[in-house]
Amino acid sequence: MSRPSIAFGDGVAAYLAAHGAAVTAWGSIRHGCCGGSVAVPTAEPGPPSADPRGGGVPAGSGRAAAAGELADHGFEIVEHEGVRVFVARDLAQHATGTIHIGLDGFARWRRLRVEGVEAWSP
């Protein structure tokens, strides 16, 4: 598999630089009321959890893992605009082209969004 192509929207690089200069993109599993589930493309500031039970979500207060250790858990690591981007391999496989990470909201109510990846059934 080739490395995923990444693009940032306006203000994303500065936002992430202020939040540890790392971002994790993965498919967050959502369950429907009638039994179905879907992986929704999601991004959060920070590196992924080193614990495979963490599901790839950012570690928060957990220990930082070595790049090789994360690659073993299914992440491609890409440097983009001074930010380490950890992309879950299953998310990269469902990319329709370049993976765009944007920023919504204002002031302290900001959140990242992922475009260029279709939701998939896990």
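Next protein, fold it too.
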Amino acid sequence: MRIACALLLALSAVACEPSEPLNIVTVQTGKSLNTDHNVALHAGSFRRKDTMYVSVLTEGRGAGKVTVKWSLGGRVLHQVTKKLSYNAQAATDFRFQAADEFPLGDYTIDVIVDGQTIETRRVKVE
């Protein structure tokens, strides 16, 4: 009986997770976040001591692995990966803050879902 109960619980947990891919509706970049993880202050240019925020907005049921990668001059400076699983609309934030200051220049931000680049943004540190 215990084995049957454990098996039933395991199957229920798996059935609750979405099997559909994530439905990304938009990507936001900016300097701060709202409490719901959306970008509060949208920006395409940053100062050397700012934190760069990326918010990935999804809609409906879906699951997948999202990676956000910041590059400068073709060199990856920072990369964050999160495994996501949602049953409704959601916003997931990613952030990059330099230990001291960001080097000046044009940065590329790639948003990758399950190994596929779905969006590339260009921002500037001035």
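About the second fold: Helices lie at 2-16.
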